[in-house]
Specification:
Elements: E1 2-4, E2 7-8, E3 11-12, E4 17-19, H1 25-33, H2 42-50, H3 54-57, E5 70-74, H4 80-89, E6 92-97, H5 100-113, E7 118-121, E8 133-139, H6 148-156, E9 159-170, H7 172-187, H8 192-202, H9 209-220, H10 230-239, E10 242-247, H11 258-265, H12 268-277, E11 285-292, E12 305-308, E13 312-315, E14 320-324, E15 330-334, E16 355-361, H13 363-366, H14 376-383, E17 387-391, H15 399-408, E18 417-421, H16 426-429, E19 434-438, E20 445-449, E21 452-456, E22 459-463, H17 488-497, H18 502-512, H19 527-542, E23 548-550, H20 557-560, H21 566-572, E24 580-582, H22 586-590, H23 610-627, H24 629-634
Parallel strand pairs: 5-6, 5-8, 6-7, 8-9, 16-17, 16-18, 18-23, 23-24
Antiparallel strand pairs: 1-4, 2-3, 9-11, 10-11, 12-13, 14-15, 19-20, 21-22
Helix pairs in contact: 2-5, 7-12, 8-9, 14-23, 15-19
Length: about 625
């Protein structure tokens, strides 16, 4: 984790900012010194906006910037585009940027213009809008992140079906001559003042000295940028459920052939060279407009899994797709060649200097309905230098299936410690040999088979293996049970929960009598807990002398209401076994107050949100350091 508090020309920054995503720490520090597009005065910025209509600069947006349209400006900086749209088009505009100094100036300019643009200090990788947008714009921002492709995928998630995305990036060919020109100046001993003087000759239209310096620093002295092509972006555009509409590369003409556009963009290098020879400013920048396709699939059919005779099912190797998520939007799921949900390959031997953890869990830890890079495992890796987390979590699985995955797959990978994250309902999943699911081809409800352990004379014995591919009938066959409630009482509870005011009633009742949705945890002698305990002990045995960390997972009601804590008594009792640690997430999340509900995708879904994964990663980092697990293996103090 990188945490910085910087002094700037604009005073001491108010708070430390933890960079825990693909946002680049050096870039943030750079823009704190002088944000991009920053003029000498608020009044100067406001006057410039009044005379520049964004629809003139970007003609494809003219038909989209309607009065009732909701617009998001990602990486808004000092607010030029967001405030321009608010002033000239009357749209509802939100601007986000990770630089608080830039956001404060954007708010001041909005005040001077008397517009209602909403600005937020936020990181695009953890930003969770309350609703999706008609148009999402990001101009000259995403190529400054540590992963531009992930950033493009992320902003696609903010677009509503039928909405549009407008992205501006540095072009791989068109940018090179400009960078090479100033690189040669620097290598030949040119001072920063000399380079500024030359830049001023090229970009002669900038008269405001502060604005000129902000552009010069951004274009010439920037600590990090990448360059891209439309051809490179097309798989990302189509893979996120978008359709290319137009691009500046062919001057926004109708696209009859992508090959013709690709041929046109290869000419960008020569164009840039000629501009420099003519002493004309040319940044090598291109934009494209894409439209999000309407969503047609609503059922969670798990089209990314396939049959496995031991575990029941597993992720399909080399799967890569954007999928719809409840409540709108989309998320990115990708697996590697071994069928592990991750965007990279892992060597069986742990790399030198790396501390490696194996993570086992169900859909909460697997990151259902959030993109790969947003999951707690990837968040942990970005927070803790030298940590690698191999996330074997499998959606919909029981702790018994997770044990089998660890023994079959996880033990192949050299690792230092094990993390097990059992969802509370797994105490029931462990008891069944089938669970309800949807068939990926037909969308019909089916029973998907799974293995099951039985506890016989204190020993685990595996049953129902090889697992039947599917119980095709919706009614359970002889000996087949499912943990999915299907009784009159369960349906009645679901309907009652939707009644207005029921949440307040629950808060009142549960304050006096904490609700226990899983009574199996009440009695340590219950057959369900005895089986769960035996499975965890088997994890402990298979892990050898490695530490094992148990992190019980729960759904949003546990932060929303006063719930029973029997589960914590049961899991904490496991700490009597040496080198076994149990982490309690609930107190940490409750410290967030009302924001704790943001940790879940409720009301659309019960799973952790991207924000929730970030918060859980933060808790785990603190607890790992407190327990000494990381310092023991990575040399951290």
């Amino acid at each position: 984790m990188v945490s910085q508090t910087k002094s700037t020309h604009f005073g001491e920054h108010r708070s430390a900012v933890s960079i825990v995503t693909f946002a680049n720490a050096d870039v943030l520090a750079f823009y704190r010194t002088l944000p991009f597009n920053y003029r000498e005065s608020v009044a100067g910025s406001a006057e410039a906006i009044k005379t520049h209509d964004p629809r003139a600069a970007y003609p494809p947006l003219a038909a989209l910037l309607r009065d009732n349209a909701r617009i998001l400006d990602v990486g808004c900086g000092a607010g030029w585009f967001a405030n321009s749209v608010s002033y000239h088009c009357g749209c509802s505009v939100v601007g986000i940027d990770f630089n608080q100094i830039a956001v404060e100036r954007a708010q001041e300019v909005a005040g001077a213009l008397s517009v209602s643009t909403e600005f937020q200090t936020a990181d695009l990788f953890t930003y969770e809008p309350a609703e999706l947008f008609d148009v999402v714009v990001s101009l000259g921002v995403l190529h400054h992140t540590n992963d531009c492709i992930a950033a493009v995928r992320r902003v696609c998630e903010f677009v509503k079906p039928g909405g549009h995305l407008f992205i501006g990036l540095y072009h791989k060919f068109g940018r090179e001559p400009f960078l090479d020109y100033f690189r040669k100046m620097r290598n030949n001993g040119a001072t920063e003042e000399a380079m500024l003087s030359r830049y001023k000759e090229l970009h002669s239209g900038l008269q405001d000295e502060t604005l000129l310096h902000s552009w010069f620093r951004d274009q010439v002295l920037h600590p990090h940028e990448t360059q891209h092509t439309l051809e490179e972006m097309m798989p990302v555009i189509t893979g996120t459920g978008m359709t290319l509409v137009s691009t500046s590369l062919n001057r926004f003409a109708p696209i009859h052939s992508l090959e013709e556009v690709y041929a046109e963009e290869r000419k960008q290098y020569d164009v840039a060279v000629q501009r420099l020879k003519k002493n004309q400013y040319f940044t090598g920048f291109f934009v494209f407009l894409a439209r999000k396709n309407e969503l047609t699939r609503s059922l969670d059919t798990k089209q990314y899994v396939e049959y496995d005779p031991l575990v029941g099912y597993r992720y399909i190797p080399n799967f890569d797709m954007m999928l719809p998520r409840p409540g709108g939007g989309a998320y990115h799921i990708q697996t590697n060649s071994k069928g592990i949900r991750t965007s990279r390959e892992y060597a069986f031997k742990r790399p030198s200097g790396v501390t490696r953890a194996i993570l086992c869990g169900d859909s909460m830890a697997a990151g259902q309905f959030v993109s790969n890079e947003q999951r707690l495992s990837e968040q942990l890796e970005r927070r803790i230098p030298g940590l690698e987390v191999v996330n074997l979590s499998l959606e919909g699985s029981g702790t018994d299936q997770q044990l089998l995955l660890y023994e079959q797959v996880g033990l192949q990978y050299e690792h230092d410690f094990l993390i097990v994250m059992p969802f509370l309902s797994n105490i029931r999943r462990n008891m069944v040999i089938a669970r309800e699911a949807f068939d990926a081809k037909t969308g019909m409800r089916v029973l998907r088979g799974k293995p099951r352990f039985e506890l016989v004379n204190g020993q685990l014995e595996l049953r129902n293996v090889p697992v039947p591919k599917e119980y095709l009938n919706s009614e359970p066959e002889h000996g087949v049970t499912t943990d999915t409630p299907n009784s009159f009482v369960s349906h009645l509870k679901t309907r009652l929960s939707a009644f207005p005011g029921i949440s307040y009633l629950k808060k009142l009742v549960y304050f006096f009598i904490p609700w226990e949705p899983f009574p199996e945890f009440r009695n340590p002698a219950s057959k369900e807990w005895q089986l769960m305990e035996a499975i965890i002990h088997r994890f402990r045995q298979s892990a050898g002398d490695r530490p094992i960390v148990i992190v019980p997972m729960f759904y949003d009601n546990y932060v929303r209401y006063r719930m029973s804590r029997n589960y914590w008594k049961r899991f904490r009792s496991l700490e009597v076994v040496p080198r076994t640690f149990v982490i309690d997430l609930l107190p940490h999340l409750r410290q967030l107050g009302a924001a704790a509900l943001r940790c879940f995708q409720s009301p659309h879904d019960m799973h952790l949100s991207a924000y929730g994964h970030l918060m859980v990663a933060e808790v785990l980092e603190k607890e790992f350091l407190h327990l000494g697990i990381l310092s023991r293996h990575s040399g951290q103090e």
